[in-house]
Amino acid sequence: MTSLEQQHQQEEPHQVGVDELHEELDTTPAVALDKYGLTPLHWACDRGQSVAARLLLQHGADVDAVEKRMFKRRPLHFAVLASSDATVRELLAHHADVLAADYRGWAPIHGAAYSGDVASLAALLDAGASVTTQLTARRETALHVATSRGRAEAVRLLLKRSPGDEGLLELEDDEGSTAAQVAARGGHESIACLLGQH
């Protein structure tokens, strides 16, 4: 590798492999599945490769492709779990379904709350995700998920972006716990205080 190529890789590490991907897309469909039932778009999102995701989408990749194994996640699920807000924004620009749930009932908003990725969480809320109506199979809101993981900034954002009259703080999961009770049980005292102030 020449020093110029090394410098290019250091300046733009997210571009590594994009030229090869572009060449591959000339002969291989962007919707091909691997042995795990994943498309190239799933893998690009899993790795937070927004440029590769854009290229795949431009070549016909399905923005809402459902993985074929038991998890049933879509590319947007992978992008939020990778904490890649650039990839999340790219998928949203291509009208990814923000309400799509995986096998546990987790929508992308739950994944962003889990990872504490506030930028992706904000983008999902801007695109129509709901804190109060999108519940997991265990009846958890994104606030429950963020609270259980100790994600204070995500909790702040969810509280700020949720009207107080929606009863968010009173919603209980399948164990009968509110987000404040989840915070107390998990030892997240600062989050419990934050929830108590609302």
TrEMBL record:
The keyword RNA-binding does not apply. The keyword Signal does not apply. Pfam families: Ank, Ank_2. Keywords: ANK repeat, Repeat. ANK repeats lie at residues 36-68, 104-136, 138-162. It comes from the Eukaryota. PANTHER family: ANKYRIN REPEAT AND PROTEIN KINASE DOMAIN-CONTAINING PROTEIN, ANKYRIN REPEAT-CONTAINING PROTEIN-RELATED. This is Uncharacterized protein.
